[in-house]
Specification:
It is a single chain. By secondary structure, the protein is mainly beta. It is built from two helices and 13 strands, in the order αββββββαβββββββ. It has one domain: Clam (outer membrane lipoprotein receptor (LolB), chain A). About 15% of the residues lie in helices and about 45% in strands.
């Protein structure tokens, strides 16, 4: 019995992971990596969804996002033009307008909203630390109100990455941007480590800024 009691805290410690160490810096200027949208934009991606390495679906993803209001609309469309999923997101509410199988579950909608925010919108949380990782990457760490942590890093050769960790330091999602593309969103890969692992391979088809309509002349 004593051995079992002693093993409990050991197993607990092993189940918790630690965040990568950021070597703090007072370097000025130090600009945090920021692959996020700067203006309202419409993006169309060819998306390949994989579960355990096997392709589950290939669709088109359409996103219209406004970083100023942290709101966006999104849709999933087949290559033939059939709409499978349509939704609007704002900090106040989520509205699902269309959701056909296999995209009708609440978990799918929740994960999709989180993925879009993680990729395209700057972290909402407070900046906790900035500096360098052991591999030389510039890194900025943001603490979310949920307790999760988001690291945004940039390496001279590997480009920009985003990693979301749980409050206990477990990696939940990992986004990589292919720096060889002309557009930061040209090639994106998102790897999720949830109840089941999945990955999204996103290749940009179209990206357009959405300008505010000019005011009518009196």
């Amino acid at each position: 019995m004593t051995r079992v009691i002693l093993l409990i805290p050991i197993l607990f410690l092993l189940s918790c992971q630690t965040l990568p160490v950021i070597r703090l810096t007072e370097e000025k200027p130090f600009v945090c990596p920021s692959p996020f949208l700067k203006e309202k934009s419409r993006l169309v991606h060819a998306i390949e969804n994989r579960v355990r390495g096997n392709v589950q679906s290939s669709v088109l993803g359409i996103t219209v996002a406004d970083p100023a209001t942290r709101s966006f609309s999104c849709a999933i469309v087949t290559a033939e033009g059939m709409s499978l999923f349509e939704a609007d997101f704002s900090p106040a509410a989520v509205k699902i307008h269309r959701a056909l199988p296999p995209f009708e579950s609440e978990d799918f909608a929740k994960n999709m909203m989180e993925d879009i925010k993680l990729i395209f919108l700057a972290p909402e949380g407070s900046l906790q630390s900035k500096g360098y990782l052991s591999d030389g990457s510039q890194a900025c760490r943001y603490l979310q109100t949920s307790g999760d942590v988001i690291d945004v890093t940039e390496h001279p050769s590997d480009g920009i990455q985003i990693k979301r960790y749980s409050s206990t330091g477990v990696l939940k999602k990992h986004v990589t941007f292919d720096k060889s593309g002309k557009n930061i969103y040209q090639h994106i890969e998102l790897q999720a480590y949830e109840f089941f692992d999945y990955s999204l391979l996103m290749n940009l088809i179209e990206a357009q800024p959405i300008k505010k309509q000019a005011q009518k002349k009196k």
